[in-house]
Amino acid sequence: MNIDYSAQEQRFREEVRTWIAEAYDTELREMMVQSKNGFLDKEGQRRWQKKLHARGWAAPDWPAEHGGPGWTPTQRYLFQAEIAAAGCPPISPMGIKMVAPVIMRFGSDAQKARFLPPTLASDIFWCQGYSEPGSGSDLSSLQMKAERDGEHYVLNGSKIWTTHAQWADWMFCLVRTSRDGRKQAGISFLLVDMTTPGISIDSLPLLDGPMPGEQEVNQVFFEDVRVPVDNLIGEEGQGWACAKYLLEFERGNAYGPSLRYQLDKVRQIAAKQPADDGGRLLDDADFRRRLLELEIQVEAVNAAELRIFSGISSGTSIGAASSMIKLAGTETKQLISELAVEAVGPQGWPFIRDTWAEVQGRATEPRPGPDYAGALLPRYFNYRKTSIYGGTSEIQRNIIAKQVLGL
Amino acid sequence: MDFQFSDEQQMLRDMLERYLDEQYAFDKRMAAVTSAPGWRPECWQAFASELGILAAALPESLGGLGGSATEHLIVMEAFGRALVLEPYLSTVVLGGGLLARIGGDIAARIASGIASGDVRIAWAQSETQSRYCLHDIQTRARRDGDSYVLSGHKTVVLGAPWATHLLVSVRTAGERLDREGISLLLVDRNTVGIRTQDCPTVDGGRAAEVWFDDVRIPTAALLGTQDHGLELLEPVFDEVVVALCAEAVGVMRKMLADTVAYAKERTQFGVPIASFQALQHRMVDMHLHIEQASALTWLAAMKLDASPRERSMAASAAKVRIGKALRAVGQGAVQIHGGMGIAEELAVGHYFRRATVIEQQFGSVDHHVRRYDALAGEVCHEY
Predict the structure, then answer these.
(1) Residue A318 has pLDDT above 80, yes or no
(2) Are B342 and A206 within 8 A, CB to CB?
(3) Nearest to A378 by CA among B357, B325, B38, B322
(4) A88 with A24: CB under 8 angstroms?
(5) Long-range contacts formed by B294-300: CB under 8 A, 24+ apart
(6) What is the pLDDT of residues B189-200, one digit of tens each?
(7) In whole angstroms, what is the distance from residue A141 CA to residue B271 CA?
(8) How far B38 CA lies from chain A's nearest CA (Å)?
(9) With contact defined as beta carbons under 8 Å apart, do B363 and A405 qualify?
(10) Measured between CB atoms, does B265 come within 8 Å of chain A?
(11) pTM, rounded to two decimals
């Protein structure tokens, strides 16, 4: 049992830290702090990902043959930890983390050549067409039709909760190509060019109150959309296997480092917020106690993750432990956002729609209240999604009950 | 022991709910929220004339109908159920409550304006250095002849953009945290020298930053006795807290009702999600939160004319229990609604945002536990 990193690993960590300090510029940093939903805008995301790409670090999980940096699991973890500790922007996951592994595993050589390099370079922005209005937790009940017509599939139906569809060049889409047999067996994995005629997008603003064009999710409608059969990944009817592969491929997104960063932000806010007795909220006994208990909870989540990741060798998946990581990580993330709301109190009530106005030079009058206040309640509202997306907390508990406890 | 409404009180509730079901349907409220003014004067006028609720809880001595805290419970719960924006709480409960205690000409004049719908009051209490302490006041009022000269900054003044008057807590003597030396001034919103910056609030309302740059206010604006404003305020503050708790009950009952209805209708895996035991248990827990929190609120309403210690302990206990219920019910409602729970287009998310604000309004759970503790101190010394 050993919690020390080797000298080599420590040098690697230093190297990452140094690069971040140079590359993570003030404007991007300030935009992240002021982000109401945890994302940058499209241009900011692209800029950040291009910097990583230039350094060769855009896709830590990719095999070297497709442009990955060839890191050990520990290096991947350390990289992620340094990125999180600096509050760096999240990588848009749809391209690099979701569709790319599927293309690598199930795609033809032509498809790999066509899609992987521009995905790595963030020259293609992807969105994910999975959920439908009638198919959320029960995803395999999806209905969107893809009917074969010569060398095309004709798509009719609708996808919902589509993250950043309004920015996307391409969508990877689960479609129903057959109604025979089990519902999973009729699903195919199709790549759709978002400029294809017949596609329309409706913004679905969430409770964080986004600026027009900055909404996180959308509903996408397909009316007689013609998609070349060349865009089918794998075989017809193999779509569900592609989707499940992604779950198995999951190497583990660690929540611990980013939870520490977020809790530290609450600490900073509490140091500036007044308490009832005229002192600092950070020194208020009740608040301090709850902050420290949450700190301990964050350390527990972090330790549990470290134990899981250190136990896997390169190439194996973490299996059902990913459910526990997602469940614990998201619920703790929500608790931190709640503590931030308590810390800011009434100064968090004014609603600022354009929280990037100052950093982007558009502000016409000073904000009411402290500069850190504007993003806190919107983030709390937005983060209620974390126990719903990627498999609800209820679904994750079911998986753990069945696969871990054998119930 | 009686937790029942009288026939007249039931009629008040039914009449109010009927009006709100129509005029405050979700889409109409959204239109008001996104409009430039952010409220509807015609609704306020209906509260005054058609429904007579603005006068219902004012004492007869001030031209009201002589109602009590119970009328406030009924009105505020109905307002919570509909997410009403207009400033009943600060105008009728706070303003009316203070005026009922001081009496005299100013009280009669303003109360008549409240009843007619011509007066709307916003409470300018919080400052940038304060949290929930009522006597953390640095806005100064210097006596100069027959005027006070005000200087200072009040922050997040709820309803200020719609107000005709600001109820301003000022310091006329002493230092920042002193309980003595606070005065309450009822200031005409259009007084020369008052500067404001309006903004929307996350729960659909409006607020303002208010700056007083050497503003001259007639001394007639003083409510009660100079330097003794906190004593006047404290019993009314408990009434305001209890009324806010009642609004919270309305918000929570609606969130639970919407959640139950949604769970029965939404199917996944071939069955309504209401059939999943985990969700059923969560909805039951939400129900229990509401039952306990609302009962403690009604108890607090009944103790408003008990001894100050009993009254304040009951009000703080209610706010604590309501605060915990708001978080559990709000989060449960959103979770069970799935993605729809966090989408702007559905009502439940709007109730959740209002619930989040109420939880901290007039004091967080921590604040009220401490207040309860400070009052309970005497009891503990007996052991």
Answers:
(1) no
(2) yes
(3) B357
(4) yes
(5) B294/B249, B295/B3, B296/B321, B296/B322, B297/B73, B297/B242, B297/B245, B297/B246, B297/B248, B297/B249, B297/B321, B297/B322, B298/B3, B298/B73, B300/B238, B300/B241, B300/B242, B300/B245
(6) 999 999 999 999
(7) 12
(8) 13
(9) no
(10) no
(11) 0.97
Asked if the model's pLDDT at residue B160 lies above 90, the reply is: yes
Alpha-carbon distance B276 to nearest alpha carbon in chain A (angstroms): 10
CB contacts of A276 in chain B (<8 Å) are: 131-133, 136, 367, 370
- Average pLDDT value over all residues in chain A: 95
Q: Is the dihedral of CA A279, A285, A287, A292 positive or negative?
A: positive
Chain-chain contact of B334 with A384 (C-beta, under 8 angstroms)? yes
Show residues of chain B in contact with A338, CB under 8 Å: 327
**Token duo for residue B98:** 């203070």
d(CA B17, CA B1): 27
Q: Do A276 and B132 touch (CB under 8 A)?
A: yes
Give the DSSP letter of residue B4: P
Residues of B in contact with A394 (CB under 8 A): 276, 278-279
Interface test with A, best of B128, B131, B195, B267 (most A CBs within 10 A): B131
A62-77 pLDDT, tens digit each: 999 999 999 988 899 9
Three-state DSSP class for residue B116: helix
CA distances from A77 to A16, A20, A81, A389 (A): 12, 15, 6, 23
Greater confidence (B67 vs A273) lies with A273
Q: How does pLDDT run across A362-403, given as a tens digit for each residue?
A: 999 999 999 999 999 999 999 999 999 999 999 999 999 999
Contacts of B371 in chain A (CB under 8 A): none
In the structure encoding, which two tokens stand for residue B321, read together?
Answer: 């229990």
Contact B130, B276 (CB under 8 A): no
Q: Half-sphere exposure of residue A227, counting CA atoms within 13 Å on the CB side?
A: 30
Interface with chain A: mutation pick from B158, B334, B344, highest number of A CBs within 10 Å: B344
The set of residues, in sequence order, having a beta carbon less than 8 Å from that of A268 and lying 6+ positions away, is: A372
Q: How many degrees, rounded to 5, is the angle at CA B357 between CA B353 and CA B361? A: 165
Which of A287, A368, A392 lies at the smallest CB-CB distance from B199? A368
Query: Considering only residues 309 to 348 of chain B, which have any Cβ-Cβ distance to chain A shorter than 8 Å?
Result: 327, 331, 334-335, 338-339, 341-345
3-state secondary structure of A304: helix
* Residue (of A281, A158, A283, A176) closest to B364 by Cα position: A281
**Chain B residues whose beta carbon lies within 8 Å of the beta carbon of residue A209:** 202, 344
d(CA B223, CA B107): 9
Q: Are A61 and A251 in contact (CB under 8 A)?
A: yes
What region, left, alpha or beta, does residue B38 occupy, with left being phi > 0 and alpha being psi -120 to 50 degrees?
left
Give contacts of B276 with chain A, Cβ < 8 Å.
394
Count, residues in chain A: 407
B276 and A394 within 8 Å at the Cβ level: the answer is: yes
